Amino acid sequence: MSVPRVIVVMGVSGSGKSTIGERLAERLGWPFFDGDAFHPAENIAKMSQGIPLGDDDRRPWLQAMHGKLIELQAQDQPAVLAASLLKQEYRNLVLTGLHDARLVYLKADPRLLDERLQQRQGHFFNPRLLASQLEILEEPTNAVVMSVDAPTASIVTQLVSELGLAGAS
Questions:
Q1: For the chain, which domains are there?
Q2: Is 38 exposed, middle or buried (0-12, 13-18, 19+ CB in 10 A)?
Q3: What's the CA gap between 32 and 116, in Å, rounded?
């Protein structure tokens, strides 16, 4: 398998997507994009109120992320994106037409996720939504799966190795 130019870090809220994605991008010297930044204001308002998003709510968000990754690919620019992408159809939409893209799935025990969300400050995601995310989660079959019960630095080091990126920058 070729060395990836796009790495998408996925998982439910609280799994550490942004933290792992940022550290991985930092380590590689690549730009990092947080999927939360692509949500329309209406989605953020819903999630803040504890209202789960439906597929129609997610479509513009998914299309925006896909568009950004296609734009970066056209510029031969590598990237790390962190986004929940809970269903296979969401991953298909975001990754369609991308060459050398790899998916990383951050897997965690629901109790750990709940604990992390209860401690999180200043984020719009309402912790009550975790159950709805776990309910719709379709675990990927084509991803590097990482347990999030190790320290961040260990997870990033293991990802760099598993993705064949030891010499990448």
A1: 6-162 (3.40.50.300)
A2: buried
A3: 22
